[in-house]
């Protein structure tokens, strides 16, 4: 096993082929897309109308903050990323962007995103964005990820903050509804990433990352996925019963959670012989469905907001 407890960043020979696409990859655009979507939903379902220009610029700077977090994560995790098959092609471990450059990009974009969000929306939302960047880069990446198998449980809060930031851009504060959206993503994150860890096989073990699959084994991980999936259901239904919900959101929550728990049960019933025999197909399907699950939950909130604007829907 590669020991990464003593963190070191070695700069590989830089490739002369680095271009615009490498800097885009540095910002983790796939993760950014989820952040942008949930933040946008948080902004649009808020009870306070926002001018389209303010809304557009707010989401833009939230996205920039998410990208900054990704760059800081790639800077610090370069040693781990080189070991893992899933991440070794990223710009820093591939030698296309120097670690120091990734750090500079991350810090620079963080400052720009926070200040501009404060000017575009309000300073409460800007402070919330600053805290989120700090939480992801320092609390999760630098501390939790290498220290505890609860890394993705606690660290998952960073990915759950964006809808609260979007809500804060519109309202200037926090409410039951924004906390409900936070809790939905927070409880969804562990089964989503543990499913990924199951079919990534030895990547986390080779990198020395104490993911649950490494510290407690795959059987325990499957049980944890089931437990968190069951706990997610009332959180999702509860969110549908708040001011952002309604009959459409409730129906979506019920159907999606039934499918989610059924998928978790299928994973729980398997052993490694079965999983390896079909190339972890069940785990991969669950992982993909978990993405659709979160997307559709937030789409249902948008649908309720649209119905309410037409004098329909809601409780």
TrEMBL record:
Record family assignment: Belongs to the UbiA prenyltransferase family. Protoheme IX farnesyltransferase subfamily.
Miscellaneous section: Carbon 2 of the heme B porphyrin ring is defined according to the Fischer nomenclature.
Broad enzyme group: transferase
Source organism: Ruixingdingia sedimenti
Protein's UniProt name: Protoheme IX farnesyltransferase
EC number: 2.5.1.141
Keywords recorded for this protein, A-Z: Cell membrane, Heme biosynthesis, Membrane, Transferase, Transmembrane, Transmembrane helix
Keyword Ribosomal protein applies: no
Pfam families, sorted: UbiA (PF01040)
